[in-house]
Amino acid sequence: TKRTFNSLFQNDKFAFLCSFIAALCIWLVVSITASPQTTRVIKDVKVTIDDAVPSQFDLRVFGNDEFTVDVTVKGKKYQISSLKPEDIKILAQTNNVESAGIRTLLLKSDQTFGSNDYTVTAISQKSIDVYFDVPKTVQMVIEPDIVADDVEIVEEGFKTGEINLSETAVNVTGPSTEINRIVKAVARLKLQKSLSSNKSADVEVMLLDENGKSNFNYVTTDIDKVVL
Q1: Is pTM beyond 0.85 here?
Q2: What is the largest CA-CA distance in the chain?
Q3: Which H helix or E strand runs over 54?
Q4: Could you tell me whether strands 184-190 and 135-147 are parallel, antiparallel, or unpaired per DSSP bridges?
């Protein structure tokens, strides 16, 4: 058997194949152990907003809660070449969020997530602005509101009868700060000319503040329109 094995190396093709395999193994070992450090930019890495502290105060995010950043990583080329955005975790720190309002959250890399074969050397932005508030839902009676700026509501000889709405109440949901500014909900009908007969129309439900303005952020209703 020994003579047969030795005779294999006397075969030029076998000797060449063994030499090629040995050279390839040596090249792989050297490439891995002696690979130089390099950098790479990973685009569109999702930012995770840590809600541990805000949740203790019943606070949650309103408005935009999806942010992405570009992250520069450093490591050996063979280790970082296959990195994808989901392999990296960027945290928005919320340890200072204890009350409602817009908060500036600093960003940092969570190196305990995934592989430790690379380091994050830069993030495309240092912070994000996020609005926090306590969620609140209220039910409000819908009041009919007929607006006739330049004309009488009804023509002479007629009178206004009972006004009925297809829905009498609306559920309003949003941040407490905004909900507390709402003083009433109305179904507003604007008239271009005086009425001389019964009128039915789809009208928008409007939320108004104490100044009669309808300008609220992150507020939603379960009813957009009613029949008046």
Answers
A1: no
A2: 126
A3: helix 52-56
A4: parallel
Residue 49 β-bridge partners: 92
Average pLDDT for consecutive 10-residue bins of the chain (228 residues)? 54 64 64 70 95 94 95 88 91 94 95 77 96 97 81 62 84 97 90 63 90 94 88
Burial of 209 (0-12, 13-18, 19+ CB in 10 A): middle
CA-to-CA separations, 19 to 4, 25, 28, 32, 73, in angstroms, rounded = 19, 10, 14, 20, 37
- What does residue 59 show for φ and ψ, rounded to 5 degrees? -90, 145
Residues 6+ apart with CB under 8 A from 128: 47, 67, 92, 104, 105, 107
The residues, ordered by sequence, that sit 6+ positions from 79 with a Cβ below 8 Å of its Cβ are 115, 117, 118
pLDDT recorded at residue 64: 93
Match 């007929």 to its residue by tokens.
146
In angstroms, the Cα distances linking 216 to 66, 81, 94, 219, 220 are: 21, 47, 25, 6, 9
pLDDT for 32 = 54
Q: Which long-range contacts (CB under 8 A, 24 or more apart) does 65-68 make?
A: 65/130, 67/92, 67/128, 68/44
Burial (CB count within 10 angstroms: exposed 0-12, middle 13-18, buried 19+), residue 124:
middle
Q: Identify the bridge partners of residue 171 per DSSP, sorted by sequence position.
A: 139
Dist CA 122 CA 190 (whole Å): 56
Give the pLDDT of residue 199: 67
> Which tokens in the block code for residue 120?
């994050």
